[in-house]
Amino acid sequence: KQEVTQIPAALSVPEGENLVLNCSFTDSAIYNLQWFRQDPGKGLTSLLLIQSSQREQTSGRLNASLDKSSGRSTLYIAASQPGDSATYLCAVNAGGGNKLTFGTGTQLKVEL
Amino acid sequence: SAVISQKPSRDICQRGTSLTIQCQVDSQVTMMFWYRQQPGQSLTLIATANQGSEATYESGFVIDKFPISRPNLTFSTLTVSNMSPEDSSIYLCSVEGRREGGDTQYFGPGTRLTVL
């Protein structure tokens, strides 16, 4: 059974700092991995999607990497802003019906 | 992308009662998903609902406790039956979708349920 773990569980940083969120998964046979952002009362928004054959994806200040063999992914946020404050979830798609297994989440707070 | 709405957005219910949550999407989709997010926890898939067939439940979830309807390609309901305080959670629906790079899911805003 796929298990997805994220560290740290919570993170508080001053504005402008670069930061890294970590995600690990137990079964490397994945179809893709996504990073989502969850804001209170607004559901989840997909930020980046990395196919199993890819090493990284970038969108603006966000960069996600994937090392399938070691079961790890990182989300790098450059020059953090207070608007980045949210819970970040990684989710693994093992294939077969678009079924996602979510990580435990990292609650990020960026302070002025 | 898809725009998804859920009703109610939140509710406070008494033990032993049932609550039906509605999920409406602005386009036709084959697959819809229902998740539970318990306090401080991540999302756990309850079931996958395809139009025209019975929902497929994940291990630990049963139809008697979480009956699901899927009458058409834009709508689904999840009922939480005979509620107990342990059912206090956020319930989210999602639909299949595509984005750059592959398959994804689009999520509704969630229903925050508190059971007293």
Could you characterize the architecture of this molecule?
The complex is a heterodimer of chains A (112) and B (116). Chain A has 112 residues and is an all-beta fold. Chain A has strands spanning 4-7, 10-14, 19-25, 32-38, 44-51, 56-59, 62-67, 72-77, 86-93, 100-102, 106-111. In chain A, the strands form two sheets. In chain A, strands 2, 4, 5, 9, 10 and 11 form a six-stranded mixed β-sheet that branches. Chain A has a five-stranded antiparallel β-sheet with strand order 1-3-8-7-6, with no helix packed on it. In chain A, a hairpin with a 4-residue loop joins strand 7 (62-67) and strand 8. Chain A is globular and about 40 Å long. Chain B is mostly beta strands and 116 residues long. In chain B, the strands form two sheets. In chain B, strands 2, 4, 5, 6, 9, 10 and 11 form a seven-stranded mixed β-sheet that branches. Chain B has a four-stranded antiparallel β-sheet with strand order 1-3-8-7, with no helix packed on it. The A-B interface holds A 4, 31-32, 34, 41-46, 49-51, 54, 57, 89, 93, 97-105 and B 4, 9, 31, 41-45, 48, 92, 94, 96, 99-110.
Question: Could you name the key traits of this structure?
Answer:
heterodimer; A: 112 residues; mainly beta; six-stranded mixed β-sheet; 11 strands; B: 116 residues; seven-stranded mixed β-sheet; globular
